[in-house]
């Protein structure tokens, strides 16, 4: 194990996969000379050359489509979105081509493509530049969607995504690039897609959360431990496929669940997870499943408004207390 | 501080070899051997006759909506004929004749339009992409295939098809731009059939030609008489040679006309005149090529009957195929069958067996058991 940042873990995963498989190449805006808008591709151009680290014109639909074409003949493109907000310009390519060409070709052409970059709320990046993007993708049959919360997951899941024979949407976070953690240096370390992880064991309530929200939930859990509430935190890591077994298993143990998500709540991941829990474990529940979500509004620019828009540690703690009927209103 | 002309040399050529009467400009003759000329004509005739047969099959409800090719046979075959089997062909949705030239069995194409997933499955060694519906989105894929060829130093080229309307889409411009910047071996073939459903070319673009759009991206563009199979062949052969030699992409604009409906769901009499259609019927690509071949004594007696027989046999094979198996819809969603899809597949199979298709066994609600649950609270 080595201690490194989330950014370094991603960089290491890319380096290892580029070294292991000559079919892997990186393509996107500013990935070469500039080494990535968030420096995830640092050093790669120097090490692997311009054929494999490809700077493109500013055309998200175009380079995503190019990646799809190259993937169909067995290359393994890693397409970088400068931020996932800009992936909306490639939405047709992702939804109608990447996700469907394997199906439409009767299984003849795989699309082993990774589209990666930061997404989700960041610090004061405002309406068009700071939003949870996973909702646009996990609804689509044919896509896999990953949200890695820790440096170890960033490395293990990115490697799994690159080796996967399907298109994988891999959404990182601006707010996590500098987070440090232990990361295995073993080049064969991969984390299979579709396996949730229990970040913290507890007995009273299950909280499902990922990315920044997972860290806030951990803080809330620490605080609630002082009041004698034991919180279990499940991080799904991959939203499609979703490891419902781990989530349901935890709820069967704790009998209560809170789902946290950074984006607007309407028809979000929280709705899906709450539904899965209700369908699978209704009889195990001692309280309705609660969601803690972002407000139904674009991300504001001002710091205080941004804080009001996103779930805070306090809001998460409050929801946990409520499902435990420990909010004084018992 | 002068004000000067920077690039006075931009030019777009127009190429025509056979006129509407089938007279040849021998200086421009691509010089195809007789057997190749006969093969091209047969493919054009088959394309036309199959198209007519497919319209009837659609009217009878035996296949679904499709986009007929009538009038565009020369554009498709003159271009696709210069490819090697190892090259890539990227169709849009109106390339029946080109697909058949590339080896799609007719019955497979019919199966596709009857909704069978297998109909869209290229043979394992076939280098054709499936039919695509969102206009222009296949063009970046073509550039990706060409990028992969360059990446692997593979001696293949890519030919991509699209319409005049498609040139208004962003993906068209992005694809040409990428191809220009990277100098990849791709040939863009625009079948300018004058209409995008009900929108005529002059409402699609204010450019005088589509070919000139290539110049903005630093690649050559040429306009050809798309109803003249020899002109299309000559221009395509040149473009493919350029691509194969490593000299980059080309845009070919085939000026042609959609003589029939946009799709079988369309009625063009609502938006264009009978006179206009009649005018283009006089420039029919088959008539002129037949006249030319006849003069060269290369037109075989009984060709039409032979072609019809081939189509009839394929239609019979198509009709002998049973209905589509609903369970296959899950099989190629992912490269592997994930557990949740497997469960849905099994539930559907069970439903089909028991006569209740679509029931999701997994989520059958259990009876209310509040307070009766075993285990510790
Ligand atoms: C992105 C997209 N927008 C709209 C449509 C609907 N549509 C189908 S065909 C067509 C016209 C295409 O015209 P053109 O590119 O000239 O091709 P043609 O049909 O004439 O062969 C349109 C608008 C579509 N399929 N995809
Ligand atoms: Mg058209």
Word description of this protein:
The complex is a heterodimer of chains A (330) and B (377). Chain A has helices at residues 6-20, 44-48, 60-72, 91-98, 101-104, 135-138, 151-163, 212-226, 244-254, 269-281, 303-309, 313-323, and strands at residues 2-5, 24-28, 53-55, 76-80, 114-118, 144-146, 168-172, 180-183, 197-200, 205-208, 231-235, 238-240, 257-264, 290-294. Chain A has 330 residues and is of the alpha/beta class. The termini of chain A are far apart. Chain A has two domains: 2-183, 3-Layer(aba) Sandwich (Rossmann fold); 197-323, 3-Layer(aba) Sandwich (Rossmann fold), CATH 3.40.50.920. With 377 residues, chain B is an alpha/beta fold. Chain B has two domains: 13-320, Rossmann fold, CATH 3.40.50.970; 326-363. Helices cover 40% and strands 9% of the residues of chain B. Chain B contains 13 helices and eight strands. In chain B, the strands form two sheets. Chain B has a six-stranded parallel sheet, with helices on both faces. A two-stranded antiparallel sheet of chain B has the order 5-6. In chain B, strand 7, helix 9 and strand 8 (250-255) form a beta-alpha-beta unit. In chain B, helix 1 runs antiparallel to helix 11 and helix 2 (73-80) runs parallel beside helix 9 (229-244). Chain B is globular and about 80 Å long. Mean pLDDT of chain B is 93; it is low at 368-377. Chains A and B meet through helix 3, helix 4 and helix 5 of A and helix 5 and helix 6 of B. The structure holds thiamine diphosphate (TPP) and magnesium ion (MG). The site of thiamine diphosphate has 15 residues of chain B, from strand 3 and strand 5.
């Amino acid at each position: 194990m080595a201690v490194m940042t989330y950014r370094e873990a991603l960089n290491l995963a890319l380096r290892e996969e580029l070294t292991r498989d000559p079919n892997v190449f990186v393509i996107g805006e500013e990935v070469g000379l500039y080494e990535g808008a968030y420096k995830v591709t640092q050093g790669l151009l120097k090490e692997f050359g311009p054929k494999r680290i490809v700077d493109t014109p500013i055309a998200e639909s175009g380079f995503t489509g190019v990646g799809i074409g190259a993937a169909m003949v067995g290359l393994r493109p890693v397409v970088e979105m400068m931020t996932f907000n800009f992936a909306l310009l490639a939405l047709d390519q992702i939804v109608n081509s990447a996700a469907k060409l394997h199906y439409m070709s009767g299984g003849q052409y795989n699309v082993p493509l990774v589209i990666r970059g930061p997404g989700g709320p960041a610090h004061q990046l405002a309406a068009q530049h700071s939003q949870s993007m996973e909702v646009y993708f996990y609804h689509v049959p044919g896509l896999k969607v990953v949200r890695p919360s820790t440096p170890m997951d960033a490395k293990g899941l990115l490697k799994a995504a690159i080796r996967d024979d399907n298109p994988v949407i891999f959404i990182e976070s601006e707010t996590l690039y500098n987070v440090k953690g232990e990361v295995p240096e073993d080049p064969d370390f991969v984390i299979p897609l579709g396996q949730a992880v229990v970040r913290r064991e507890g007995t009273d309530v299950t909280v499902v959360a990922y990315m920044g929200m997972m860290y806030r939930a951990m803080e809330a859990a620490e605080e609630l431990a002082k009041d004698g509430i034991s919180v279990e935190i499940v991080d799904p890591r991959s939203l499609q496929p979703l490891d419902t077994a781990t989530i349901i298993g935890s709820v069967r143990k704790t009998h209560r669940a809170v789902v946290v998500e950074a984006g607007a709540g309407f028809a979000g991941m929280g709705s899906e997870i709450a539904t899965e829990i209700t369908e699978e474990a209704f009889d195990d529940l001692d309280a309705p499943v609660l969601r803690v979500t972002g407000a139904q509004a674009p991300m504001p620019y001002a710091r205080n408004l941004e804080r009001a828009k996103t779930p805070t540690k306090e809001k998460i703690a409050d929801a946990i207390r409520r499902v435990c009927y420990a909010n004084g209103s018992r | 501080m002068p004000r000067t002309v920077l690039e006075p040399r931009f030019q777009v050529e127009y190429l025509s070899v056979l006129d509407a009467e089938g007279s040849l400009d021998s200086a421009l003759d691509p010089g195809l051997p007789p057997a190749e000329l006969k093969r091209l004509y047969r493919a054009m005739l088959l394309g036309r006759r199959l198209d007519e047969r497919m319209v009837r099959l659609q009217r009878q409800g035996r296949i679904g909506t499709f986009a007929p090719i009538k009038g565009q046979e020369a554009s498709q075959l003159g271009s696709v004929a210069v490819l090697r089997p190892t090259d890539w062909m990227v169709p849009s949705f109106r390339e029946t004749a080109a697909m058949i030239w590339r080896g799609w069995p007719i019955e497979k194409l019919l199966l596709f339009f009857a909704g069978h997933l297998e109909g869209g499955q290229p043979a394992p060694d076939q280098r054709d992409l499936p039919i695509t519906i969102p206009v222009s989105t296949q063009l970046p894929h073509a550039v990706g295939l060409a990028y992969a060829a360059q990446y692997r130093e593979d001696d293949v080229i890519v030919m991509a098809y699209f319409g005049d309307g498609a040139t208004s889409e962003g993906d068209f411009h992005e694809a040409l731009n990428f191809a220009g910047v990277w100098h990849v071996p791709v040939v863009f073939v625009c079948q300018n059939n004058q209409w995008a459903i009900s929108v005529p070319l002059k409402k699609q673009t204010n450019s005088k030609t589509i070919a000139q759009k290539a110049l903005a991206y630093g690649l050559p563009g040429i306009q050809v008489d798309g109803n003249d199979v020899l002109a299309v062949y000559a221009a395509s052969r040149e473009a493919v040679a350029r691509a194969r030699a490593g000299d980059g992409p080309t845009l070919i604009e085939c000026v042609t006309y959609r003589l029939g409906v946009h799709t079988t769901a369309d009625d063009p009499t609502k938006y264009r005149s009978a006179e206009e259609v009649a005018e283009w019927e006089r420039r029919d690509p088959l008539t002129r090529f037949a006249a030319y071949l006849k003069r060269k004594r290369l037109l075989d007696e009984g060709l039409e009957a032979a072609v019809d027989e081939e189509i009839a046999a394929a239609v019979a094979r198509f009709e002998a195929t049973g209905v589509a198996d609903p369970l296959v819809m899950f099989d190629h969603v992912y490269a592997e069958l994930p557990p949740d899809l497997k469960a849905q597949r099994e539930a559907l199979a069970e439903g089909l067996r028991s006569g209740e298709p679509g029931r999701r066994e997994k989520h059958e609600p259990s009876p209310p058991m509040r307070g009766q649950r075993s285990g510790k609270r």
